[in-house]
Q: What sequence folds into this?
């Protein structure tokens, strides 16, 4: 309470990596992660995404994850529209040895958690 709310959505895509702000500990917030990855399409991203997110489509995650991190123990939160594509991306990363990957589910759910 009394904390200034951050605006979690931006409409312009970013090509730079961003890390999630880990200052908050409220359990209703988006889980704290070093890397938040949106695995949706460019069109979905352009319609809105979490400010701290990096966009890598789920079909490209295995080929591109090392652009973000080579640390197999890095905390990675994945999300898509409803959780299905994030689940596929999570499986791909786990097969590569990434051990701290979470399926954050859908964008709208995470956005609502940010706004609480």
A:
């Amino acid at each position: 309470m009394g904390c200034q709310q951050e605006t979690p959505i931006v409409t312009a895509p970013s090509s730079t990596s961003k890390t999630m702000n880990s200052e908050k500990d409220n359990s209703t917030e988006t889980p704290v992660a070093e890397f938040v990855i949106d695995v949706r399409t460019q069109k979905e991203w352009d319609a809105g995404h979490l400010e701290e997110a990096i966009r890598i489509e789920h079909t490209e995650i295995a080929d591109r994850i090392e652009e973000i991190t080579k640390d197999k123990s890095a905390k990675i939160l994945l999300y898509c529209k409803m959780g299905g594509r994030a689940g596929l991306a999570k499986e791909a990363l786990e097969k590569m040895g990434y051990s701290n990957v979470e399926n954050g589910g859908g964008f709208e759910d995470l956005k609502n958690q940010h706004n609480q």
